[in-house]
Amino acid sequence: DLDIHCGGIDNAFPHHTNEIAQSESFLGHEWCKYWFHVMHLNDESGKMSKSKGDFLTVSLLEKKGYDPMAYRFFCLQSHYRKNLVFTWDNLDNAVTAYDKLIAKIATFKNEGEVDQAAFEKLKERFVGALNGDLNTSLAITAVYDVLKAKCNDATKLAALADFDRVLSLNLLEAAEVLRKKQAEEEAANADPEIDALVAARTEAKKAKNWAEADRIRDELKARGIEIIDTPQGAKWRKV
Question: Quick check: helix, strand or coil at residue 6?
Fold first, then answer.
């Protein structure tokens, strides 16, 4: 037996009606509890179709350099009962949003204990969105609620891992890949002299010696170094 049977809205009748008739007449009992009919994916000219030769494939997206996870993110931001309009600009916007989401998650440190009460409160919002006719758009909003939540990183990561069992966006995996990439880039661009100047600027700021902090910043700028202040401390990069 099935719990959920998926398909396009064009299969609701007669295809799925016939499927129910033949399956249940053979089994002698209910075959599937829920039928999930998704509205069409359209381009700006209308419904995509194989016959017109304008349909999307994952291989085409990958060929064009797109992460399939960003496309999944794009789809999840809409409700399944609404036609989803695909344009490359819309997909590019989803890529930007997905990359920013992963970058934020990559800043979380898996330290400390999970606050179970806070975790359950965050999960309640997520499950509530899914219970509201599988509203994945609100479920994505619940993901962003986690980012802003007033709890420790361990709790946020636990919630995101739990949500991603449904969303399948590879949130924690992609964040770990990004962390490793950033660490490798930092190691490759390591410069003890620059690091010392950045540290000196940080100490000057702590001492409220703004003139010295500005002097160091201007010196580094003249050498083609940009300082980026983050919650994890000052970073630098060559520009």
Answer: strand
pTM (two decimals): 0.75
CA atoms within 13 A on the CB side of 128: 10
How many C-beta neighbours within 10 Å does residue 185 have? 11
* 32, burial (CB in 10 Å: exposed 0-12, middle 13-18, buried 19+): middle
Peptide bond into 231 cis (omega under 30): no
**Rounded Cα–Cα distance for residues 92 and 110 (Å):** 30
- Whether 56 has a pLDDT exceeding 80, the answer reads no
Greater confidence, 8 or 127? 127
Place of tokens 């381009």: 43
Handedness of CA 199, 203, 206, 211 (dihedral sign): negative
